[in-house]
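Exercise 3.2. Students should predict the tertiary structure of the chain below and write it as structure tokens, then compare their answer with the key that follows.

Predict this chain's 3D structure.
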Amino acid sequence: MDGVPRVPEQRRTGTSGATGSAEPPEPQETPVGLRFSVLGPVRAWRGDELLATGSPQQRALLAALLLRDGRTATAAELIDALWGDDPPSQALAAVRTYASRLRKILDPGVLVSESGGYAIRSVGGDALDLAAAEALRADAEKARGAGDLRTARELCSRALALWDGEPLAGVPGPYAETQRARLEEWRLGVLESRLDMDLEQGCHAEAVSELTALTAAHPLRERLRELLMLALYRSGRQAEALAVYADTRRLLADELGVDPRAGLADLQQRILQADPGLAEPSAPATEPAATPLRPAQLPATVPDFTGRASFVTELSDVLSSASSPDGEGQVMAVSAVAGIGGVGKTTLAVHVAHAARPSFPDGQLYVDLQGAGSRAAEPETVLGSFLRALGTADSAIPDSLDDRAALYRSTLDGRRILVLLDNARDAAQVRPLLPGTEGCAALITGRVRMVDLVGAHLVDLDVMSPEEALQLFTKIVGAERVASEREAALDVVAACGFLPLAIRIAASRLAARRTWTVSVLAAKLADERRRLDELQAGDLAVKATFELGYGQLEPAQARAFRLLGLADGPDISLAAAAAALDLPPETTEDLLESLVDTSLVESAAPGRYRYHDLVRLYARACAERDELPPEEREAAMSRLLDFYLATAAGVYAIERPGERVLDHFAATDHPGLVFADRDRALEWLFNESNCLLACAQQAAAAGLQRKAADLLMAAVDLGESGANSLQFAHAATTVSVAAEAVGDQWAEARARTMLTHVHSVCGRFSEAETEGHRALELGKAAGDPVACGQAPNQRGIIALYEGRHSDAEAHLEQALEAFREDANQPGAASALCNLSRVHLATGRLESAVTLARRGVEIYEVDATGQALRLANGKYALGLALTSLGKTAEAQSTLTAALEIFRGSRQHLWHGMTLFRLAELHLADRRPAVAAAHAEQALAILSGIGGDWRRANVLTVLGRSLAAIGHTDRARVCWTESLTIFEALNSPEADDVRALLYPAAVA
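Answer key:
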């Protein structure tokens, strides 16, 4: 093959018509009612029904046949057209499959097989939009030749209006590429002809705006430059006209090494000489009176529209308010739909607009305002287009924006028309385009929330629900492929962030690749660094959609967007964002709110902001590409880490006054928040838990293991509470692994100390002991007083729980010595209280009470009465007093501890204190009260604290129930607790067996 597609170009056969007629030729009958388009996406309709034309390659086959004007294309020609020099091994079979599928979609006798090839037959000449456009162009040339410029211009405009974006959009193959270039060249020729007639009719001011945009899009097209020079000159802007020539000459020399063609150079000389022949025509041809038209400009709705039921209902109700039940106009309804790029604003608006057509019998206007791009449509240009669509003659259209807007509103007066303003930049662009008359309605889409558009009904469009997302994916890919891999399909739509554009792209890629499974696509999208690159198909790309919004940001907005996207947390608070950006909170809030208005960032709650998952990936890509110097990325995350560490350390100090741990934290360069009271401090800590733990993991991966480990220590309440234990353990593991990888024993010792603590809290005593042993070794090697004190303290508690009392006492004596060497009095108090429990377990009741009282006395020196560690001391003292029989004092002490734990959000210790109170009441012969406390403890400890603690509570609950005669319930509780103790190989199993089988024990 020579690489040139064999399918010949379509024969151009213009339809004859009467010269000077204002109407296009009558379309030929299409017996089967089929229509086709190639001047945009390749589509087919049966009447008003949009047909599903299949995969991109299948549409490429359909396009190749449509562009042959009924002539047969051989299989070899079609293979060459679809794949060029590199066809797949099964190309012929694929062509036959595509043809077979198309034959089922189209009416009988339309796609025929003959001579080893295929052809499209039995459709009328105007069934193809290209044929209709060529016929209109031919009639326009005849009308122009006869001197009827108005008719010629209208026919050209109608030909151009048949274009719906890029020809053969999304269709692959060398033939389609060649045809796209040919059709675009033909369109530009028609456009130049129409613009030439515009100038002949004296419409210079409007032509300047359109020609400026066209020359920017096609800088080397000299005919457009020539028309722009003439339009500027006739508008009295001679200097600008000459500047266009100078720009053109320089561009051609730089790009092609040539001079402008003779016609352009001659026009320059004539302008310099003020040639009278260039003057504006003094008497444009008289145009007949305008005839009101009924525009129907809505784009086609997608056949696979999915979900959005509540939004469809909401918008439909607003639009219907423009008309009363009897059809009399009441109000002008305005709805503005805002949302992130790719969320489906246009698709939703077009769908709703089509459904509302019966309510607006006088027509529907549509315009893409290109607000997301760098060249948003000018309102005066849009008004000119709308006025023509409504039947206003060009000569009657005024030049100024205000005059056009006034004429537009007057033209709409008494008519019921729906205006769809798509992709708006802001309210200022939209206001002149609003109907403002009863019975009309405007539906607006844009990325910016138009809060300043008075009277508008605002709708914020979010991503799809998982169910809707899966439905859309299934409609595109096919139910059979999805049904066999439902979990993989859910992974795909989740990786797409449930964003409709991303789902459509991913599904289209899969639909076009029959050898791929859903799992293959899911695996490709699992790589976050490649995900945005994977989410593109043809001219659709998620990254390009985000780029449009990002490109319009001011430098400060763009910096905030980039840097805050680097943070791993699910969202970010205003204070944390201000720290990361190194800006005052007021400035930061202004920047973030502006990003919310552009739909690049979402407002998660007052004072909190979040990114859509795909937007976050894009923000990070922008940071890598645009953030200069690159060190600023690291600096921003370092400031964020310092903010979290400094603030969490402040909370730690409030909960644990006098603790020396804070003195051993790494220094921070950025201050944290300061809290007026304990409640606000704890509220901040638990509200920021996910963000704080994510920051610790991110910092460890970035080489800041020491500060990451310190942050975990400062936030230990999150792990100790039980509510965040799983996330805390994951973060501590991440930091530990990162520290070990770089040989940082100091950071690893602290991270393992925190793992010891959280494993113990969760009842995983074996894992806790392993981590504690290693943490102590590392702490000694690194000379870290924190790990040297806390690790043996934790190991002592673990040994106590496991019944290894001599080990427990040895560990705790070691901890006590380490704390005293570090002058850490609260730490020493903790070790004393834990030693009290060992003495209690070994029958030394008096010394147990003495040790616990010494611990509480130390805590009370610095504590305000509500410090968390004071509650820990009172907990230990209450246990000792209970065993000594001092139940009144024990109850008072445990109740005081309970109130502190409850106020500190320490769910684990809240539940355990209720359990200890249940033991106390049971010992004091109040079994009903004991049972109530045990039930509360079970409820609070559900899912936290581990199975060992649950089994202990069940044992006490069973004893309480048995004491009040509920023996069957008691046995159920003991049976469950025995199962747990046996699985854990705990010594408590013997005690429970004795309760269940007293005769056997006896």
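Discussion points: The chain has a mean pLDDT of 87. DSSP finds 46 helices and 16 strands in the chain.
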